[in-house]
């Protein structure tokens, strides 16, 4: 058995070294598999039936903060698991085998190349010779993003189905999950602003992909005043905190309004969203850092972009050129 738990220099089943932030186990022993599961998961029951001598089990977990990429694979075995309610939510993509999910009195089957939500409310899950990978994050992040986007109270936000609502939504989720998984493994999402943005991206994609109450519930408009003073206070908060991971909820709380009111106030008085203004401030800070760089001090455009929350250098370059009429590399060289 190889149980790596992120120790540098260990080897995976394929013989490749594991990065320090990746935990991985590979075993062909049902007893070792059972011991590993029992030592790590105390909140669920798992029953495994081995089909033959070719049994193997692979599990992998790679996390940055609360955002994680996971993989689980069974060869020549089926597994049935009863999960209790938990604080995290997971969406998995099946690349081999099949699985069945029982939840709220119904069940859903998933075959190869399918994607399913595993909600945090407790469920029974069966997999047969399956190889699945997924992305997980705290349900609290999803609730916050839902409230910010729709105004629906967090207590009313709930997932009502397990499968993607449309093929287009499914494709969008797979693109998001692949981007986040690569960013976690490569540590490209390690900068705090990029990690915060990735968490919000995953939450928003889950809400757009899997059936939930934000898709069906009408929400009344904000009642409290969206005044210029509210906008000024919010702008001051953003200016002071731009280098830190902050959300729409954080900004709204700092000025004493709900997120929808803040959104409305910015659109009404500034013709921009609060997060749009935050991006403008961060772009200006990146400009200042490029101007202040000295020859030979190691400053790069990619590093500056990442520090200020721009995950894709080409998009940063486009926004920068639009704002300053020159590419960031030219500013750095000047």
TrEMBL record:
Keywords: DNA-binding, Transcription, Transcription regulation. It comes from the Bacteria. Residues 232-334 form the HTH araC/xylS-type domain. SUPFAM superfamilies: Homeodomain-like. One of its GO terms (molecular function) is DNA-binding transcription factor activity. The keyword Protease does not apply. The keyword Transcription regulation applies. InterPro entries: AraC_XylS_family_regulators, Homeodomain-like_sf, HTH_AraC. PANTHER family: HTH-TYPE DNA-BINDING TRANSCRIPTIONAL ACTIVATOR EUTR, HTH-TYPE TRANSCRIPTIONAL ACTIVATOR RHAS-RELATED. This is AraC-like DNA-binding protein. It comes from Krasilnikovia cinnamomea. The lineage of its organism: Bacteria, Bacillati, Actinomycetota, Actinomycetes, Micromonosporales.
């Amino acid at each position: 058995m190889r149980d790596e738990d992120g120790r540098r220099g260990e080897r995976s089943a394929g013989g490749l070294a594991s990065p320090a932030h990746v935990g991985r186990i590979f075993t062909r022993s049902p007893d070792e598999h059972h011991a590993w599961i029992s030592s790590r998961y105390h909140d669920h029951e798992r029953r495994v039936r081995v089909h033959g001598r070719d049994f193997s089990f692979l599990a992998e977990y790679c996390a940055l903060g609360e955002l994680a990429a996971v993989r689980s694979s069974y060869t020549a075995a089926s597994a049935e698991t009863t999960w209790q309610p938990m604080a995290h939510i997971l969406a998995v993509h099946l690349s081999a085998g099949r699985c069945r999910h029982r939840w709220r009195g119904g069940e859903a089957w998933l075959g190869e190349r399918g994607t399913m939500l595993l909600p945090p409310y407790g469920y029974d899950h069966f997999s047969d010779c399956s190889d699945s990978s997924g992305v997980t994050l705290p349900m609290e992040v999803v609730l916050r993003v839902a409230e910010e986007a729709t105004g629906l109270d967090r207590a009313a936000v709930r997932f009502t189905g397990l499968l993607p609502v449309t093929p287009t939504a499914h494709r969008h989720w797979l693109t998001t999950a692949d981007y986040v998984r690569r960013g976690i493994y490569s540590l490209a999402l390690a900068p705090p602003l990029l990690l915060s943005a990735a968490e919000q991206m995953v939450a928003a994609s889950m809400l757009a992909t899997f059936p939930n109450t934000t898709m069906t519930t009408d929400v009344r408009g904000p009642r409290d005043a969206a005044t210029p003073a509210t906008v000024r206070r919010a702008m001051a908060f953003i200016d002071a905190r731009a280098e830190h991971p902050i959300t729409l909820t954080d900004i709204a709380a700092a000025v004493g309004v709900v997120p929808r009111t803040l959104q409305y106030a910015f659109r009404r008085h500034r013709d921009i969203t609060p997060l749009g203004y935050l991006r403008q401030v961060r772009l200006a800070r990146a400009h200042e850092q490029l101007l202040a760089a000295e020859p030979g001090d190691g400053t790069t455009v990619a590093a500056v972009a990442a520090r200020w929350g721009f995950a894709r250098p080409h998009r940063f370059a486009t926004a920068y050129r639009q704002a300053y009429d020159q590419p960031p590399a030219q500013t750095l060289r000047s």
